[in-house]
Structure formats: structure tokens, C-alpha cells
Amino acid sequence: MTAFAGAWLDRDGNGESSGELDRVFPLASVTKPLFAYAVLIAVEEGSIALGEPAGPEGSTVAHLLSHSSGLAPEATSPGGPMFAPVGARRIYSNQGFEVLGRILTTNTDMTPAEYLRLAVFEPLGMQHSSLDGSPAHGGLSTVTDLMRFCRELLAPTLIAPATLQRATLPFLPDLRGVLPGLGRQDPNPWGLGFEIRGHKRPHWTGRTNSSATYGHFGASGTFLWIDPERSLGFAVLTDRRFGPWAAEVWPPLCDAVVAAHKPAEG
Asked: 130 in helix, strand or coil?
């Protein structure tokens, strides 16, 4: 039997939840937006710059966050291989986030796990969240904790709203590429650590989600999104590996959450 937990909330604190809300699940790639948020905090602290050279020649921190550095999905040798020139295609790359982790350690003298804990988890009260391994996919958390992160994304306190807005708008918006598990997308918009819905078809969010919706899904059957036009966030954690079932189940589930959300009048 699949273990499940899910919850949605809006900026006014309204919401619903179901399942094992305090069970710790592997996040897989839902780790990426959490780690990206830590990187954005480091940017505001001056430890890292988005334009700082990072990865292959010509690439920057922003290229790594947005999967536009050209690095291969996984590291097979230090610094390579390249699948495309920098800024030419959207190549989804765990390797790019691992390079970011090394840069963060060099610039702050803290491991990615330490920095993420101190910069994000502790300030937000995410007591059951941790990073165990790669900053690309090694996160562990609960739906209760992810709702705290959703509240932060709906009304940021750890970074400036302008920084979050920049991170959740497409970086090199016209790049095409493959959305893992869902096929080629042209364009395939991505922000700085956040996948952006845009007009992708197929997509894992609902048909009624706005094109500005951003978030991430993971191979462990997990996802988190924020629809800024509705001030609405939704997260689901499972222990069933992502597959065709998710592409069938998730979009109507997301549509049901959008339909259930009744924003306050006035």
C-alpha cells in the first residue's frame, strides 16, 4: 500500500490536509527548490553571486540553478561531460546542483546540509527536514514541514520578495529541453531552482493551474507547487516511485485543489 500525505494552503492560512502529515519521506528532486532557496539566501548575504562563474567555462551560478549550463544530467567525470553549449538548451542536471553544493561549501565553509539547516530549516521551524547526501535529491521532509516552506514562498521572510520573484520567473525563457518523465518541451521554462509551468503539455500540475505556477516534482512520487496568481501552495509526498501513474493522477488532483480553494472576498 502506498503511503501518502498531502496538504494545500493559501496566503490567508486556509487549507486542507490528508494522510501521514508528520511522516518523513525522501523528497528526491523536491530537494532542489529547498537547496535553491538556501543559495538565494547566500546570494543576499553576499557569499555567492548569481553571475559568479560556476561549472563549465562561460557558465554561472544562475545557469546551474536553471539547468542551462549544458552539463550532463549526472557526473561521470569531474567537470563534464557537456551535453550542450552554455545557454543553448535546458539540460536537467543533478550534476549542476552538486557543483553548486561544492561552491557553497567553498564560499561559506559549511556543507550544503549545514547551510540548508541553518539558513532555511531552522528559521522556518522545519524540525523534521534534513539533507542526507546530494543537494540535488538527498532531502528528507514531512508535509507539515513543507507547508512551512510554502508559507515562506507565499510571503517571503528569509529573502526579499524581489529576489524570490526573480527566481520564479523564466531564466533564458526560450530554451527548449526535456522535462524528465514528461517529454520534450519547446519552450521549457525554468527559474532559479524552480520549474515553471508555462504552457507545457503534458505537465504534472493541473490544467487550471496558472502558467506562473512554479515548483518541482521528485522521482520518489513527491511534488510541491506554488500558484502565485492564486496565492496557493500544494505539496504531496508518497513512497511510490514516479511513473505513468503520476502523470494520470496528479493533474486532476491539482485541479481539484484549485477548485476547492475559495479565496477571501475583497
From this structure: strand
The structural architecture, per CATH, of the domain 4-260 is 3-Layer(aba) Sandwich (3.40)
SS3 252: helix
In whole angstroms, what is the distance from residue 196 CA to residue 179 CA?
11
CB 22 within 8 A of CB 140: no
- Chain length of the chain: 266
**Residues with Cβ < 8 Å from 4, sequence gap 6 or more?**
18, 19, 20, 236, 237, 238
Count the helices and strands in the chain (H runs, E runs). 8, 11
In whole angstroms, what is the distance from residue 171 CA to residue 187 CA?
Answer: 11
pTM for this predicted structure? 0.96
DSSP result, 21-62: TT--EEEETTHHHHHHHHHHHHHHHTS--TTSB-SSTT-BHH
Domain boundaries, given as residue ranges, for the chain: 4-260
Give the number of other Cβ atoms within 10 Å of residue 79's Cβ: 12
Helix (H, G, I), strand (E, B) or coil at 248: helix
DSSP E strands, 11-157? 15-19, 25-28, 130-131, 139-141
Q: What is the pLDDT of residues 28-60, one digit of tens each?
A: 999 999 999 999 999 999 999 999 999 999 999
